Predict the structure of Diaminopimelate decarboxylase.
Amino acid sequence: MHLHGTAVINDKGHLMIGGVSTIDMVKQYGTPLYVYDTALIRERARGFKETFQELGVKAEVAYASKAFSSIAIFQLMKEEGLSLDVVSGGELYTALKAEFPSERIHFNGNNKSRDELLMAVKNNIGCIVVDNFHELRLISGITGEMKQHVKVLLRVTPGIEAHTHDYILTGQEDSKFGFDLQNGQAEEAMKQSLESEYIDLLGLHCHIGSQIFETTGFNLAAKKIIEKVAEWKSAYGFIPRVINLGGGFGIRYTQEDDPIPPGQYVKEMINAVKGETARFGLEMPEIWIEPGRSLVGDAGTSLYTIGSSKEVPNIRKYLAVDGGMSDNIRPALYSAKYEAVIANKAGADPQETVSIAGKCCESGDMLIWDLPLPESEAGDILAVFCTGAYGYSMANNYNRIPRPPVVFTENGKSKLVIRRETYDDLITLDQLLT
Ligand SMILES: Cc1ncc(COP(=O)(O)O)c(C=O)c1O
Ligand SMILES: N[C@@H](CCCC[NH3+])C(=O)O
């Protein structure tokens, strides 16, 4: 049995997160429940910033808010001095409601609508990461009409296959994202941006994928970009002030995962950029990154109540919980693996191997296969670790299951930051037929 994040066990054998008993939180807020240890998020955020400071490199660390967006987490990231990467009008709206400084908001995405771009320009956001020619035309039009400048980065695809799940690969040539770096698209986009009166081209952006455990892909992406920059400098005199190398740093979901420390990714990519810029006699650009999972992933834990169980003789025992693919779709979508303990018997040794089923009407709604657990009964609390990224943010109302609440813990205190959805919430958008 392995505990993740900063979880510890108290003298009653109960799991504690951020100094608060999970069993007390279950009594107060019910299950299913997402619990975050915000001290751990702060530690991760500071870690990234300190690494850049130690290396003397100008940087912006933007939290990729798709990992978990809510007003409270945006307020926390603001307190920590991070920037924010949003990918939709909804995330931008939430950021503005959280009074996140608009000059530190970056807008990504492969099909931003005119309205979303208008919202970004009107609110003077820090930069738009332009993904394609359609968007470039839209931005040129909007900024021309408004006579207002906007800073942009061009998202390029460097042609790199990072080693991760196919669905979360993004840097390869055959990708829906970005301007291809090799076939002239990126160069054309750079020329068009320089020609557009109100577009201020800050630099280039790339993001090669998510849950990556090796530094090779990042280093290679950095090298390919700098090589192009050197070509462009002599041909067009364009020198990017910023290179954004995206996010994607992997975390440990199970003992099989072997991630390197987040700072190591940063150090290696900076060395790669330093090496290449020196080789071509270029100035060191600012390096921006946009991590999501590595900031919030292992700080989140999901708590469920165990309900029914079913024995398939000689094959397996199923234990069902009161959530599932509606609050954590990652096992169903990516065959993602998790570890868990019984929160009210957290110190007990495993006695049996069980498989954790969700409550949705789908055979594929399985949260964990073959999990060693102490003997359990209905009413016990299951704590699934490392659900802080792409858990709540990908939650849905399949089977009209209300989304769970989110609680932040720190220094022995808990605070509700998203309330539980109610049945009334589920029908608020419904209109009567007659
Ligand atoms: C453009 C972009 N930036 C940042 C991220 C954050 O990735 P991660 O949560 O893996 O750090 C993603 C997601 O893969 C992304 O698509
Ligand atoms: N949602 C994915 C990551 C996708 C990242 C967005 N580009 C996950 O849960 O792993």
